[in-house]
């Protein structure tokens, strides 16, 4: 249960960060799309696997334009 809550909180924090800079449609696409920052896995997969810091770093890179 604790791990599920951590993943859910991380996904929420990432979504809140991204939606400040882009539309909700883009944010949804970002979560399910392949991401080079995550070795071509989707951020949703990374979060599911517990790679929360990597997913947040990928979100920050996206916001920064990379």
Between the first and last Cα atoms, what is the distance in angstroms?
A: 34 Å
> Share of helix among residues?
55-70%
Strand content: under 5%
How does the overall form come out from the CA principal axes?
Answer: globular
Question: What is the count of helical runs?
Answer: 4
Name the poorly predicted regions. Answer: none
Number of strands: 0
Order of helices and strands: HHHH
> Could you tell me the mean pLDDT?
97
Number of domains: 1
User: Helix- and strand-based class?
Assistant: mainly alpha
Biggest beta sheet summary? none
Q: Radius of gyration, rounded?
A: 11 Å
Oligomer: single chain
Explain the layout of strands and helices.
Layout: H1 2-19, H2 24-32, H3 43-48, H4 52-63
Helix pairs in contact: 1-4
Describe this structure in words.
The protein has 66 residues and is an all-alpha fold. It has one domain (2-63). Helices cover 68% and strands 0% of the residues. The protein contains four helices and no strands. Helix 1 packs parallel to helix 4. The chain is globular. It starts with a helix and ends with a helix. The mean pLDDT is 97.
């Amino acid at each position: 249960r604790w791990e599920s809550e951590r993943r859910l909180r991380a996904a929420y924090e990432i979504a809140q960060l991204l939606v400040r800079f882009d539309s909700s449609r883009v944010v949804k696409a970002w979560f399910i799309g392949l991401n080079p920052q995550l070795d071509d896995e989707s951020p949703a997969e990374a979060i599911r696997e517990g790679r929360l810091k990597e997913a947040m770093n990928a979100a920050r890179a996206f916001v920064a334009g990379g």
